Amino acid sequence: MAHRPLPSLTRDQIVAEAFRLLQDEGLESLSMRRLAARLDVQAPALYWHVADKAELLGLMAGAIYGAAYAGAGAARDWREWLGQFGRALHASLASHRDGARLCAIARPMAPADPDAQAGRIAAPLTALGLDVKQALAHQAVVISFTLGWTTFETNGPMRDFLRQIMDFDSTFTIGLDALVSGLGHPATS
C-alpha cells in the first residue's frame, strides 16, 4: 500500500488558510477539522504547528494587529500616531470577516518576557514622549473603541439600518479623533 507523502505545512500557511476559511464560512465554522480538510491533511498534522484552536485564533489576531502596527506610519506626536493606528486597526479588522469578533475572543500569545513585550507594544508612543504605562493605556483605549466600533459596524441588521442614517467611516473618524484628543499626557493626567 503506497503512502502519500504529507505536504510540508508551515504555520504561515495554516494561518493564511484559516483566514480564507474565516472569509468563506465565518467564525462559527472555523474549526481545526475544517481547516485540515481545506489543507488536505488530517487534523493531527496541524498540531505539529499550533497547539490548539485557541493558539490559532491568537496567531490570527496577531496578524490583524501586526497589519495595524505596520499601517501606522511616522508621526509628529503621539496623538497623530494613535489616530493613524486606530484607522489602520479599523481597516485591518474590517478586511477580515468577523475580524473584530476574532480579536475580541482570541487569547494573546504568552510572551516569554511580559515586560519586554509591553516595551515593544509601547515603543511607538514612548518614542513620541509617553511613558510605557501611559502608552499602553492609550493604546488600550483606542483598541477598545475600534474593536467596539467595528463590531457595531458589522452587525448585519443594525448595520443595514444605520447605513441609512450615517456614514460609518466618517462617524468612526469623528469618534476616534474626539477620543484621541481627549487623552491626557502624563504631565497633565
Automatic annotation (TrEMBL):
Task: Spell out the Gene3D superfamilies in the cross-references.
Answer: Homeodomain-like, Tetracycline Repressor, domain 2
- Name the InterPro entries on file: DNA-bd_HTH_TetR-type_CS (IPR023772), Homeodomain-like_sf (IPR009057), HTH-type_TetR-like_transc_reg (IPR050109), HTH_TetR (IPR001647), Repressor_TetR_C (IPR004111), Tet_transcr_reg_TetR (IPR003012), Tet_transcr_reg_TetR-rel_C_sf (IPR036271)
Domain of life according to the entry: Bacteria
The record places domain HTH tetR-type at: 8-68
Q: Is the DNA-binding keyword given for this protein? A: yes
Question: Whereabouts does the entry annotate DNA binding, in residue ranges?
Answer: 31-50
Signal recorded as keyword? no
Q: What PROSITE patterns does this protein map onto?
A: HTH_TETR_1, HTH_TETR_2
Mind listing the UniProt keywords for this protein, alphabetically?
DNA-binding, Repressor, Transcription, Transcription regulation
**Role played:** TetR is the repressor of the tetracycline resistance element; its N-terminal region forms a helix-turn-helix structure and binds DNA. Binding of tetracycline to TetR reduces the repressor affinity for the tetracycline resistance gene (tetA) promoter operator sites.
The protein's name in its UniProt record: TetR/AcrR family tetracycline transcriptional repressor
